[in-house]
Each structure stands twice: as C-alpha cells, then as structure tokens.
Specification:
Protein name: NADH dehydrogenase [ubiquinone] 1 beta subcomplex subunit 10
Distance between the termini: 113 Å
Number of helices: 5
InterPro entries: NADH_UbQ_OxRdtase_su10, NDUFB10
Membrane topology: Peripheral membrane protein
Number of strands: 0
Pfam family, one: NDUFB10
Number of domains: 2
Largest sheet: none
Shape: elongated
Region (Disordered): 1-23
Radius of gyration: 36 Å
Length: 175
C-alpha cells in the first residue's frame, strides 16, 4: 500500500467551485476604520515624530558624555554657604565614582593580561601590576576607611590629618 505522502499516485482533482469575490455595494467597515485611523492618528503622529527627529539631528546631544564644571573644593567654601557645600559634595561624589572606575579599569586590564600571558604573567604583566598597586594605594589614601556613608567633609579631614602626620614625621626625621 502506498504512503499517504505519495501525491502522484493519488492526484486530487482541482476544485470546480470558483473562489467567490465579495463585492457588495456596502463598503467594508474595517477598511474604512483603517483609513480613518491612518489619516486622523497615524499621519499627524508620524509627521510630529519625524519633525522632532530632524530637530534633534541638527544638534546631537550625547548624554553619556555629560561634562560638569568644576566647583570649588569644600575647603574653599565660605562658612554658611550651603549651596557651595552641596556642590562640593556632589563634585566629591563624582570624583569618587571616577576614581573607582579608574581602579576597576586598571584591575580589568591586569586580569586580561594575566589571562593572555598565562604562566608568564609575573614577567610580562609587571607594568600592569605596578600600575594597579599605585592606583589602589592612591584610592586607599584618599577614600579608604571612610565607609559607605563617607562624604567630602570626612575625606577632607582625613587628608588634613594625613598631611599633619607626614609633617610630624618629616620634623622628627630631620631632628
């Protein structure tokens, strides 16, 4: 017995019923609604959208390259100038995020070098290791031991105390 998929053995005769074309004197309401929607909603919205895109294409704005002006440091703010305090705090937070990203980028470069070099990593990645040591030491000196809730004032006080200790050490070494 032949398979069902063998169409050559069992040809189906073509249908004799013609395909009916629905032509009536009443217009199709779906086509009418689509046309109305196109002219009332879609065309004006498309026009406005294209106009806005043309305006934005004239002056491109890259939001990820936002540049903030440098504000005075907290030590330069006058006493009672709360707006200056706020701006200095915001500037300090941005600087901290940038410094954190710098440390992370250097760490990723060192990891990529270690992955690439394999057993020769200690010889071939010495520059990256030294750079990471310098960057992490600088970050630790500036932001270390501040904790999660550290702010510009505590960071400034930490730096002041560190500078005072360095001066004492220099004075003791010279005597």
């Amino acid at each position: 017995m032949p398979k069902d998929s063998d169409w050559e053995a069992y040809k189906v005769p073509p249908t004799r019923t013609p395909v009916s074309e629905r032509t009536t004197s009443v217009p199709n309401p779906v086509a009418f609604l689509q046309t109305v929607f196109n002219y009332v909603v879609d065309t004006p919205v498309t026009f406005v959208r294209e106009w806005i895109e043309r305006q934005q294409a004239k002056n491109k704005y890259y939001y990820y390259h936002q540049k903030f002006r440098r504000v005075p440091d907290l030590s330069e703010c006058l006493e009672g100038d709360y707006l200056c305090y706020f701006e200095a705090e915001a500037q300090w937070r941005r600087d901290r995020m940038v410094d954190k990203e710098i440390v992370e980028i250097v760490r990723e470069r060192l990891g990529a070098c270690k992955q690439r070099e394999g057993p020769n990593q200690f010889q071939n990645c010495a520059k990256e290791m030294e750079l990471l040591a310098q960057v992490t030491k600088a970050y630790q000196d500036k932001y270390g031991d501040l904790g999660v809730h550290g702010n510009a004032r505590t960071c400034l006080m930490k730096q002041k105390h560190r500078m005072m200790e360095e001066r004492k050490a220099q004075a003791n070494a010279s005597q």
